[in-house]
Each structure stands twice: as structure tokens, then as C-alpha cells.
Write a structure and sequence with these properties.
The structure holds 2 protein chains of 2 kinds.
Chain A (H helix, E strand, L loop, with lengths): L2 H15 L3 H23 L2 H18 L9 H23 L10 E2 L10 E2 L9 H6 L2 H12 L2 H10 L6 H8 L3 H19 L2
Antiparallel strand pairs in A: 1-2
Helix pairs in contact in A: 1-2, 2-3, 2-4, 2-7, 3-4, 4-8, 7-9, 8-9
Chain B lengths: L16 H8 L7 H13 L1 H20 L6 H14 L5 H31 L4 H31 L3 H5 L5 E2 L2 E4 L13 E4 L4 E8 L2 H14 L5 E5 L2 E9 H13 L3 E2 L19 E10 L3
Parallel strand pairs in B: 4-8
Antiparallel strand pairs in B: 1-2, 2-3, 4-7, 5-6, 6-8
Helix pairs in contact in B: 1-3, 2-3, 5-6
Classes of the chains: A mainly alpha, B alpha+beta.
Chain lengths: ~200, ~290
């Protein structure tokens, strides 16, 4: 991350502390995508990732007045995101409710017990119709295979694609050594490449 | 020393997949020397070039798959605002809390029921009391869980129309531009663009180092810039500050004059339409490596 960006973030945090709510909105616009992507890397599920991203910024909004700035804002945000995403992951595991359903996936058995197929209308994809039609088959395969990758590879690989997230940032967020992260990204890439036949 | 990193994993003494992966991420390779050596190898080895291309394609696809949904920022801001008013919408913790709450209520009810039954039947029907408790507990739990699930559904499916009306978003270095009419209906497909970062590093291969250096000096001069050069291990490293638009033009010019860009980072040759130019200064680090060595 560039020094300019870090300095901008500090200014935004200070402005928010002095009561400028617009500064918080800028932080949300800047970083909500990253929070979502990090959470997606951990959870492999878009609704859950959005839920976590929302919770991250609710937490940040509450805690920011007490944020001392010992760490960079992004480091702090990555940490909160990882903690909440891991909590959510554990919750899903206990409940056995980690289910990835595509927007068009038919569910076996209607809710009325008739056994007929029914379709659910999830805000899962959230693409406009024109975007949906352009969504390539390959991307769908990538999504499926990415979701099926071992968690440690998916986390690292997805974070690698988060804007401006360096290997050091990923290592900090995942509490791993730099070499481990390099290795996980490489193995994740190689595994995904094999599975997709690229 | 440099080639100590090269492991004999392929028949052509190719770098390991881990090194090729790090090479795709530019800065992840430990030294310029190592980066240069891998760049040279990749430009000369068909197998490794295909692997690097596959990794880059994967990155593009993974980025597309993990793309945040449209309107995320607005929904987050709305959630933050509503969290300030009453209770926060946190379904999984809410569910946990409600399950715990329900369990406590059920336990109290069960104890009360036992006490009542004992009182009514004067101690002769402890067994009966136990039998009546169990179904009561079961039913209460099921009702609570059904309620919790419906709460979760309400949260996950909230305001679908609002989501469909999203008109574009800005996040990180990406921007999407869409056309909408007065009623907020989308009229044109979104055009995805990105901002260039403040610093870019590129490795180029060239058939003639000195000629390329002269070319770059001339192009830099045209852009009112100066490149500072350093020599290292048969390659040339240069640094220049340019406006983002001029950097794209420089990259296009180098490509059209036969230099090959081996780095995956933006800007890429001929990709100017996808860049949102703002006139911001970009620090450009470039490494010239002799091709095929």
C-alpha cells in the first residue's frame, strides 16, 4: 500500500473522529469491496461474505472513535474481517449450513412436500440481466472449483486478487509466514489450473 | 547464485511453479536479479510461458468471480445507519442468542411444569411428569428454530429491488460506468475501467538493450520526463514519473516497437480504453532484459 493511501486513510479517520460522517462513507466506498473479497475467500459464499462485510463496517463505525492508529487502518480492517469471517465459518460448520446455491439452481422437492422442483430467488448473483447473460461458463466453473479448493488455498488465492493486498498483508491477515503464503498461493493456482484444465 | 533457485522440476531446468507464481505477482520475487532471471527464462521457454499465461488468466477469472456485488457500499452504509438506531442486524449471532434464550425459557418452563405436576399428583407420578416434559421441550425448540430461520431469510433477501437498481460502484482501483434513465433503469451495459496505481513495475524483454534505452529516453523526453538508469547483471533498470495517460502511451509505443512486456500488471499495451485516466502521477519502474537469454 502506498504512503499516500495510508496518509489519506489517517486523514479520513481523523475527520470521522471529529464528526465528519462523510469521511466514513469514503472509507466504506474504498474498502467494502476488499472486506467482501476477504470474507468470500474464507467462506466461499457470497451472501455470507456480504453479511460479514456489513458487520465489519458496523464494528468499525462503533470502534473508530477509539482507534488509536497504532496499526494502519487497512491492517485493522483486515483483522476484523478475518475474525468475523472465521467466526461465521465456525458457525456455519456447527450448523452444517454452508451451502452454495446458484441463482438458477433448482431445489429438489417443493416446500409443500409435492416433490416438484421449485426455484428460489436469491440475491445471490446480484447481476443485472445483461450481466448475467454475459457471465461465462468458464467463470461458473472457476467459481465452483474455487469453492471446492481446500480453505487454506482459497483464502490465500482470493486475497491475492484483492486490490493492493500485498503478500505481507495476506500473511498478517492469515497470521502466517510470508513463505507459507507464497506457497499456498502457488499451490492454489496450480491446483485450480489443473482442475480447470488450463 | 541466481540459478540456485531454479529447481530441476521440469526437463528444461524450469523454475518451480512457486517461483513462476511469485513471478506473476512481480513484487513477490525476492530480488531484481531473480526476477530478471525468471523473466529471461519465461521469454525463452514455451512451457513456462504457457504456465504464466494460465496463471494470469486464472487471476483474471478469480478476480471476476470474487467481484463484490453491485450496490454493496450502499447496503453497508444503510446497515451501519440502521445499527445506530436499534439492534444490529446480525443474523447468526441473533440466532445463537435466540436459541440460548429459547433454551433458557424452555428449561424454566420444564422445571415449572415438573413442579406443578408434582404438586398436583402428590409425588406418585414423577414418571408422568417426565413424559409430559419431553414433547413440550421438543416443540418449543422447533418453533424457535423456525422463527430464527425466517429471521435469517428476511435479512438475506432484504430489499431485492434496491439491489437491482444499483447504478454502478467504485471500489479500489476499479470503476464501473453505466447509463440509467430518469427512473433509475439501466439503459446501457456497465463499462468496467480501472485507475492505474501510484506505482507500476514492468519487466520488458528486448533484442537490443542499448537501442531500447535510447528509444525510452526519446519517448520520455517527448513526455517531458527523464529516466534515471542503473545497470545490473546485464539488464537495465529505469525509473520515471509520468502522468497515467502518458504511461499508457509509453507502454503502447514500446510494444509497437517490438519490446515484449512480460509483467502482468497494468497498464498493458493496447488496453487504454479500459483505463480511467485522471492525470495523476505514476512512478514507473521498468527493467529491460535481453530476450532469449
Amino acid at each position: 500500500m502506498s504512503k499516500t493511501t495510508m496518509s489519506e486513510d489517517r486523514t479520513l479517520v481523523e475527520r470521522f473522529k471529529q464528526g465528519d460522517e462523510a469521511a466514513f462513507e469514503i472509507l466504506v466506498n474504498k474498502y467494502s469491496g476488499r472486506a467482501y473479497q476477504i470474507a468470500y475467500g474464507v467462506l466461499g459464499n457470497r451472501e455470507d461474505a456480504e453479511e460479514v462485510a456489513q458487520d465489519v463496517f458496523i464494528r468499525i463505525h462503533r470502534a473508530l472513535p477509539r482507534f488509536r492508529g497504532d496499526a494502519e487502518f487497512t491492517t485493522w480492517m483486515y483483522r476484523i474481517t478475518m475474525n468475523l469471517a472465521k467466526n461465521k465459518y465456525r458457525w456455519n460448520k456447527i450448523r452444517g449450513s454452508k451451502v452454495n446455491i446458484s441463482i438458477d439452481a433448482p431445489l429438489e422437492g417443493g416446500g409443500d412436500g409435492s416433490g416438484e422442483e421449485r426455484r428460489i430467488d436469491l440475491p445471490d448473483d446480484r447481476m443485472a440481466p445483461d450481466e448475467k447473460s454475459a457471465f461465462k461458463e468458464l467463470e461458473k466453473n472457476v467459481r465452483d472449483e474455487l469453492d471446492n479448493l481446500p480453505d487454506i488455498y482459497r483464502e490465500a488465492l482470493v486475497m491475492r486478487n484483492v486490490e493492493e493486498m500485498s503478500y505481507e498483508d495476506i500473511a498478517n491477515a492469515l497470521n502466517c509466514k510470508l513463505g507459507t503464503i507464497k506457497s499456498r498461493i502457488a499451490r492454489g493456482r496450480e491446483e485450480l489450473r489443473k482442475r480447470l484444465g488450463l | 547464485m541466481v540459478y540456485a533457485m531454479i529447481k530441476n522440476s521440469y526437463e528444461h531446468n524450469c523454475p518451480t511453479p512457486e517461483l513462476l507464481s511469485a513471478f506473476c505477482d512481480c513484487g513477490a520475487v525476492e530480488s531484481d536479479l531473480e526476477m530478471t532471471a525468471i523473466a529471461r527464462h519465461v521469454s525463452a521457454c514455451e512451457v513456462c510461458r504457457r504456465t504464466v499465461e494460465a496463471y494470469r488468466e486464472l487471476d483474471r477469472l478469480v478476480a471476476a468471480v470474487c467481484r463484490p456485488p453491485a450496490g454493496l457500499e450502499q447496503r453497508i452504509l444503510a446497515a451501519v445507519k440502521s445499527s445506530g438506531q436499534a439492534s444490529i442486524d446480525r443474523p447468526w449471532r441473533l440466532r445463537m442468542f435466540r436459541l440460548a434464550q429459547a433454551a433458557a425459557v424452555v428449561a424454566v418452563l420444564a422445571l415449572a411444569a415438573t413442579a406443578v405436576m408434582r404438586h398436583v399428583h402428590s409425588g406418585k407420578d414423577v414418571t408422568l411428569a417426565q413424559h409430559t416434559q419431553e414433547p413440550a421441550v421438543q416443540i418449543a425448540t422447533e418453533e424457535t428454530e423456525a422463527k430464527a430461520d425466517s429471521d435469517s431469510g428476511a435479512v438475506a433477501l432484504a430489499e431485492p429491488q434496491e439491489r437491482l437498481r444499483a447504478t454502478g460502484s467504485v471500489r479500489g482501483n476499479d470503476v464501473q460506468t453505466v447509463g440509467i434513465d430518469r427512473s433509475g433503469v439501466r439503459t446501457t451495459a456497465p463499462v468496467a475501467q480501472y485507475y492505474l496505481p501510484a506505482a507500476v513495475r514492468h519487466v520488458w524483454t528486448t533484442s537490443d538493450l542499448q537501442q531500447s534505452r535510447r528509444l525510452l529516453d526519446a519517448l520520455a523526453k517527448d513526455s517531458n520526463g527523464v529516466i534515471t538508469w542503473t545497470d545490473a547483471d546485464g539488464s537495465l533498470t529505469g525509473k520515471i514519473q509520468l502522468e497515467d495517460g502518458k504511461l499508457q502511451a509509453l507502454v503502447d509505443s514500446l510494444h509497437s516497437r517490438g519490446l515484449q512486456l512480460v509483467s502482468p500488471s497494468q497498464p498493458q499495451p493496447g488496453n487504454g480504453a479500459k483505463v480511467k485516466f485522471t492525470g495523476q502521477a505514476v512512478t514507473y519502474d521498468l527493467v529491460l532484459v535481453p530476450a532469449g537469454q
